[in-house]
Amino acid sequence: MRPHVVHHGIRRRRALRRRAVWTGGELLVTVGVVLLLLVAHQLWWTNREAREGAKRQVEALEREWEQDPPEDSDSGTASPSPSPTEKPVRSVGARPASAEPPRWSQAYAILTIPRLHLRVPVAEGVGKQNVLNKGYVGHYPGTQQPGRSGNFALAGHRNTHGEPFRYINRLAPKDTIEVETKSAVYTYAVDRTLPQTSARDATVISNIPRSTVRPAYGYTEPGYYVTLTTCTPEYTSRYRLVVWGKLVSMRPR
Asked: Would you say 94 and 77 are in contact if contact means Cβ atoms under 8 Å apart?
């Protein structure tokens, strides 16, 4: 019986294959760990960092307003003219908002939604780096300021970077939305929700907000509106979720 002979070349090829398999496995494990770290960073760290930064900004605004209270003014803000089916808005002499718009990316108001336990700063503009990724809510340039006739339109992340608008789909009619500025607090009541529309449906933030994609949603008459917009479904940016509200009261700070 002839002994089985294993040539050195065969041994080397087997060793190389084992080494290649081992190296490939290590690479796959490394890539998996890196991906897990990236996911953790997006889903956990960006939320923590943004929420802490937003909280500090809210506190900074509150301190600023306490140290520099608005001057009394005899010229009160005019009350919105309610439709026959709406309750009148009580005018309590809140000072009109300044004609000068806030500086770009400047945090100048505080948004409070009691049902969502949410209290975040509002900044001018909807840029990601300087506004939304800080956990702030952004004011769409070209739309009205709080308390003004027309549409005060806002955008916020639904996932990551503080995700202030993650649960706005849970808002129901009559839930309150408060917008606090240096001079006044404006209270809106949730009125309607558009569950999903195109990201290009720009008329949802018009002066008289209405969807052109889904015309059954929106309004046909001037009013004092607030609009909240965010991405939907969660963890995508394909569509937009829209919540509309109407101004119901205002009071000076």
From this structure: yes
